[in-house]
Design brief:
Strand content: 15-25%
Strand order of the largest sheet: 2-1-11-10-12-13-14-15-16
CATH superfamily of the domain at 454-554: ANL, C-terminal domain
CATH architecture of the domain at 454-554: 2-Layer Sandwich
Distance between the termini: 55 Å
Radius of gyration: 23 Å
Helix content: 25-40%
Number of helices: 18
Structural class: alpha/beta
Number of strands: 26
Amino acid sequence: MSTAEPESFWRASPWRDLGFPGREQAARFYAAGWWRKQTFTDDLTAAARKRPDHPAIVAYEGGQLARSLSYAELDALVSRFAAALTELGVRHGSVVVLYLPNRWQLSVLYLACNRIGAVVSPVIPSLGARELGQVLAYSQATICVTMSSYAGDDYAARLAEAAPASLKHRVVIGDTDQAGAIGFDTFFTSTPWEDRHPLAAVAPSGPDEPSLLIYTSGTTGLMKGVVHSQNTLYAAIRAESDPLGLGPGDVLCVPHYLAHMAGMYGCYMALMLGATNVIADPNTDMDLLLDLVASHRASYVYAAPAYALRMLEEQRRHPRNTASLRHFVTGSAPIAPELVTAVRDVFGIELRALWGMTETGCTTITRTDDPPGWAAHSDGSPVPWMDVRIAPDEESGDDGGQLLVRGASLCLGYLGQPDKYAECVDGDGWFSTGDLARDDGRGGIKIVGRRSDLITRANGQKVSTLEVESVLSTHPAVADVVLVGYPDPDVLGAEMVAAIVVPEGMPPTIAEVHAYLAEARMAETLWPDRLMFARELPRNSLGKVQRGELRERLEIAASRPR
């Protein structure tokens, strides 16, 4: 397949509306070394050959070591899982949804899909049946893999409830009595499908073909299916690994969902480097993460500010030997200056800040030659293969402008929503991020505001206000409603969610609102933390709700307990 002209398959499929790179652009990215002919499956083959016994994945479940895979073992399991997917009818371009927490099987399945040219679509387990059903329907997935249960919830039943008619197979890790479900351990792990389906004749994902479909909340009620090729993901990963000087001797720990873009870095960056990825369930007390840093001599940690704060609290309470830690990186939410100072005091290293989004991955990052404590003043400077521009913005005044980006890690588009993607990209290829930024004085950026209709929680998870509002507006006791972010009292710069309601008759309680959203199968992370009431919502001359005015009210108004 030509690097600039994807196979006719992609042009005749639901992927045809994506922004495949033009011949000149692709040639420029290749010539500069920003893209490559190799893929992540080539990285696996090379690592299995050069260092077969080196640990690739060390996985913990419930605080206990569940599985450790060398590169040779990982290579063998990828072949087996790829052949199992082939047995189930997965072909080039098929979508495989992985609705999984942090389990060792997830990384293997990523690569198995890459190995047979399937498009992998991860879904974080904190999303509910409503969001899962949307992903399965919009992507026309043929297979979904999930757990029998996780964190006390029946995920197999949730999948059975959400599955559209287009889904051919439900695969469950663990025991399940769901009719029609395929047991993962017996079918995938224990059966040598590679003997029946040799992969030598099966074409893997090409470097410029769609290989990753990852859904993200947006400023509309519809989740956006962001499509990446292996080369756009490769460029995004290098935006961290190159500036930090990571290599095969590094041990990575990312306490986020592996099904999220942040956690995916742990999987693919470790593989690209031939390094080790230590994974565990995301947790809030950070006990296990610090134990893993100490016992596995981890050298790299990425943690959103909320996780970083908890790590600091736990390390002060119960110090571990973290001398191996060379890189502590954070992003996804605002970074308080106190956090930068605390990381230096507690761990003895500089905190690195980055800015990125699902559509681009990491785009800017603070560097080793930046002044001490620079992460408190900057979200970093761009890597050579990404251009960044701050465009004037009337609403932000003198404190910044709209952040625009373009380059080698920009995604291929939004699956099934070409108009939405076209609204974000101008004729010169500049992608409007929706964030507001200013120049940091050293060639980088500082984020000064976020999309007005998207709220960022302390753990980095985004709340699409319009999606929640669209459901709450149907509540019989709600005449009008808007969601607004307000300062999180525990994490400086992060936000919590308030619902301002114009009631219809008797005002609802916060418990009734939560019950209504639960009945609508909306993920709990999207639920409002506070409920307030108004006679009417303030609107401008165009009818748009003036959220800024409501935010000011929140600072002085009393709240109802959740």
